[in-house]
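Continuing the batch. This is chain 6 of the set; chains 1 through 5 are on the previous pages. Same settings as before, nothing changed between runs. Recording input and output for traceability.
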Amino acid sequence: MKANGFFYSALQAQVLETCDIEALDKADCKEISIRIFVKDRNYVSETTIKKIFGLLENTAPPSPFVLDSLARFTGYTDWEDFKKQIRQMKDNQFIHIKTYHSKFTVPPAAVVPMANKSSI
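Output for chain 6:
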């Protein structure tokens, strides 16, 4: 999970932005689940959303289905496309996504630290 920590945080921020949520709470997780299903017909449970955002303990990394569903929900083809697009962004846009997450109120457990320090 640590190897993808930055990408997980960026995806969390994208989901919150897509749903226009600034202060995440447990009730929002049901709304996110419903919105994903309505848009893409992919069912990602409320419990899974809570785990993704650190509102419930999660001992396993998210499944490829969940990551693909969240990435598609936010406008990307799939999880790999999401990571590729993030990597290809210019430095100022990349930093924007990294710091953009901090404008949302997300439980501290939801922000997974990057495995490797970067020069950004």
